[in-house]
Amino acid sequence: METRGRMTIDVQGDALVLAGAIDETSALHELVGRARHGRLVLDLAGVTFINSLGVRDWIRMQSAAQQAGVAVELRRVSEPLVHQLNMIVATRGAASVTSFFAPYVCDACGREDSLLIDAIAHGPGLARFEPPGMGCPECGAHMAFNDFPERFFSFLARP
Amino acid sequence: MGYDGGQVSSILIVHPDRKTQRVVQRILAATGYTIDVADDLDQGLRLLAHHRPVLVVVDGTAVGAPTLGDFLAAAKARGAEACMTLLGAATSEQLPRILGMGAVTNLLVHPMPILAEELTITAQKLIRNDLFGAEKYLLWGTDLETTILTRSSQRAELVATLSAQVRARGQSARVASMAMLVADELISNAVHNAPVEAGGARPRRDLARDQDLALDGRHAVKIRWGCDARYLAIEVTDKFGSLDRETILAALAKNDVRESGGGAGMGIAIAYRSSDHLVFNLAPGKRTEIIALIDVRHPPTERVPASSYNVFVERS
């Protein structure tokens, strides 16, 4: 049997780096107490999975942060988490998203990849549901966005 | 073939588009039943006076029409077992309205022309009352791996293994991720929400999800999965059969999956939105089987941005 790995927390610079699965075992409420100077920066590139129980606890963590006056920044949000942010608006809460991963496919060689998008630099285009252009890391050709932009970027709009 | 007092049973199609009428008629005629076609619900009502359809197929754009209620009541009175609604890519924005009605038990979302396989399978299951098994949705010869969960703590390992095996068989990280999420939600549902006592109490519903539970006897949960390079199918079965049609339709309609923080039924709503087709096979008091189908043929941009579902209830 494989294991999906419990969520781990590391510190890197100003961010808490979360990795693994967010589920009923993750104790997310403890994160708020680790905010620094009223800021909680979460690096989420390593989050591989989040189920409905993880979402419930995530939303509670967001509410606790808001009540404590802590500003939450979501950085390098992984695709599984974006999927949940799009399905359940409350998952985003009042947090700001500075970057996230998105699906691209290369028209030339067929490579599929999850590529990082800077939500600040590309903010105006993303608001118009225009994905930024990306080059294929394998063959250098143009990569096409591999989802419906209106659906995938909807989490960026303020609820 | 169905006969009733010398009258041959039929299937009634109500669709305004002639081309679609012909396509649906051709597909469903393969069942051997007589096919009647109406352009609208009024014409359908008139046909119901003379026919006894086992199945009525209604275009999704008719949902919300003032005469739909009369039509469905008349179809039921004439013995129709179920109503199937078709929703084309161009009209997929009707989905929230259809879900909000809480009355459509079979919805097939499809690119035009009609997806023949899904239409035929749905019709045959309804007509034959032969509901169970993911094999019906997969090509002949597709192997289904089976696991019986005997402790609730095995859930996390099982879905991780499923994800790894899906990847090992050449599917994308996205498909594996969706499979993991869908399996986790359906298993969690079967372990905690399905068990019901004679008095109706659900003793495991409010237990902490990280509490390890023995899944012996009737509590055992069966998981099967297989892929035929068209669909990845994940089937989860419990032996309580406590999930009912109304609960499912209410869960599917949960717009609070987008708007609020979750709660009961969120697992079903998430599984629906994370798969391309979710099938509920219900044998009340005996078993509930849920099959999630994830389309592995087409990239997301070539698929319809809405999902199909069926709620089948076994006739005793």
Fold topology:
The complex is a heterodimer of chains A (159) and B (316).
Chain A: E1 8-12, E2 15-22, E3 39-50, H1 52-67, E4 71-75, H2 79-87, E5 96-97, E6 99-106, E7 112-118, H3 123-127, E8 134-135, E9 142-145, H4 149-152
Parallel strand pairs in A: 2-3, 3-4, 4-5
Antiparallel strand pairs in A: 1-2, 6-7, 6-9, 8-9
Chain B: E1 3-4, E2 7-8, E3 10-14, H1 18-29, E4 34-38, H2 41-48, E5 53-59, H3 68-77, E6 82-88, H4 95-101, E7 106-110, H5 116-128, E8 145-149, H6 154-168, H7 173-193, E9 221-227, E10 231-238, H8 245-252, H9 256-259, H10 266-273, E11 277-283, E12 287-295, E13 308-313
Parallel strand pairs in B: 3-4, 3-5, 5-6, 6-7, 11-13
Antiparallel strand pairs in B: 1-2, 7-13, 8-9, 9-10, 10-12, 11-12
Helix pairs in contact in B: 2-3, 6-7, 7-10
Describe the fold and architecture.
The complex is a heterodimer of chains A (159) and B (316). Chain A has 159 residues and is α/β, with parallel strands linked by helices. Chain A folds into 2 domains: 1-97, Transcription Regulator spoIIAA (2-Layer Sandwich); 103-159, no CATH class. Helices cover 21% and strands 33% of the residues of chain A. Chain A is built from 4 helices and 9 strands, in the order βββαβαβββαββα. Chain A has helices at residues 52-67, 79-87, 123-127, 149-152, and strands at 8-12, 15-22, 39-50, 71-75, 96-97, 99-106, 112-118, 134-135, 142-145. In chain A, the strands form 2 sheets. In chain A, strands 1-2-3-4-5 form a 5-stranded mixed sheet, with helices on both faces. Chain A is globular and about 50 Å long. Chain B is an alpha/beta fold and 316 residues long. Chain B folds into 2 domains: 3-128, Rossmann fold (3-Layer(aba) Sandwich); 134-313, 2-Layer Sandwich (Heat Shock Protein 90), CATH 3.30.565.10. In chain B, 34% of the residues lie in helices and 24% in strands. Chain B is built from 10 helices and 13 strands. Chain B has helices at residues 18-29, 41-48, 68-77, 95-101, 116-128, 154-168, 173-193, 245-252, 256-259, 266-273; strands at residues 3-4, 7-8, 10-14, 34-38, 53-59, 82-88, 106-110, 145-149, 221-227, 231-238, 277-283, 287-295, 308-313. Chain B has an 11-stranded mixed sheet with strand order 4-3-5-6-7-13-11-12-10-9-8, sandwiched between helices. A two-stranded antiparallel ribbon of chain B has the order 1-2. In chain B, α2 (41-48) runs parallel beside α3, α6 (154-168) runs antiparallel to α7 and α7 (173-193) runs antiparallel to α10. The longest helix of chain B has 21 residues, at 173-193. Chain B is globular, with a radius of gyration of 20 Å. Residues 1-6 and 259-264 of chain B have low confidence and may be disordered. Classes of the chains: A alpha/beta (159), B alpha/beta (316). The interface between A and B is large, with 35 and 36 residues.
